[in-house]
Amino acid sequence: MKRDSLEPGLPDDPALHADPLADSTIARILGPGRPGGPDTDTIALLNQEIARWQLNGDLDDWTASPGLPPDMAAALEDYVAKARVLPEWADRDRIARAEVLFMEMSMVSCTLLFCASLPQCYVIPDLAAVLHAAGELEQHTDYRVRATAAMIFPVMMHGGLTERTGGGVAQAIKVRLIHAMIRHLVLRGDVADALVAPRRVPRLLAHGRTMPQVLYAHGWDVDRVGLPCNQEELGYTLLTFNYVFLQGLRRLGLGLEKEDEAAYLHTWNVLGYVLGIEPAQMTDTMDGAARMFADIQARARGQARNPDPRPPLAAALVATMQRYIPPRPLKAFPVLLTRHLIGKDASRDLGLDSHVSLPSRVLFVLGFSLVRAIDAAGRLVCRGFSISRLVTRILGYNLTAKLLMDETRPLKLPDGLLHQVGVAVHRWQDDAQAPRWANALERRFTGRPTRAARQG
């Protein structure tokens, strides 16, 4: 597909493609746009009903709750029956391999989520604008991070996409319907109507601070930027969780074998299918992913917005990470690592180049170069030797244990899945691939107890 030949406004422009299945479902439930504001009662009832989708097995022959309005019940039952099906090309062996890889990366996986995937999500101005509108994320960064983790863990844990006891499909079709609800609210009506007569949805004064009310009042220029949460943006977001993750491993000197990278891309493409992403917005090679990613970012840099929502979102994310990094010498680490992982252009887009002093940046570059040199020398003697992996584990432990696994506000997951996540995190604390000296050093920086202390 020659993506750079697409021009805004043409029928094959992915910016004008949404998700017919999910959009028609929401249209059946919410009906036409309401001049008086969003139907918050119906939306609340819908959210309550889809909260029942917790495990993949819950979707088997799923029926709506008794007493639910007939139109909503029929729409949701039709949606679940179609949305829960994996593509014919899904390869269970490759998916199983990707699950193992994610767990083997342990805390590094979480570090890349915080310092690469999420920041790259904010680079697209119009995508950042929707994220900003959907709950004023500068003040609720914790929620955004935890909501993302609540989907990634169920997908990447054992059987997440393939077993009845997994939760990846259930979480994905829930997210897919939420995307459609966001489109319906921002456009104040059915997506199909916006495409028949492209228009600018004017901004309104929000009457209330709930997510539906803020989105309804946000306004949108369909002619200029396409649909909200359109196919190009959905495909880009998918790339931030597969391509950006794998690219991040490479930049840390922890790159995977080619076959393993392909398995990881494949697994996320299966998830993309369940999320309603068109095949044209996915790729199964790193080279193809790199081209798609660069093309989308290049086009997005022409989408000027005033005020620019990207720097505040990035600053809030960095501040959240720094809050959970207790040792003062490491406070600058999140922003410096993020800059290294996402590159100069994306860092400049997000305003991250002004967050750290020049001496700190110089020390980081020198330290990172030294780590890479030691790793290269160490691997001549021990194949699994990696100081880089240790450093990112230290950061990942603090973020995972203190932000994602806080017992006072657990992730919104079924009890069984939440227990599995907890077991996995505790297992990561004593990674079998890390030598004893590395675990000892990690305990020094994280403050976590020894294995003996935890068992005693």
Automatic annotation (TrEMBL):
Q: Name one Pfam family in it.
A: MPAB_Lcp_cat
- Where do the coiled-coil regions begin and end? none
Taking every annotated instance into account, which residue ranges of this chain make up the domain ER-bound oxygenase mpaB/mpaB'/Rubber oxygenase catalytic? Answer: 129-356
Question: Record's superkingdom?
Answer: Bacteria
| Official protein name in the record | DUF2236 domain-containing protein
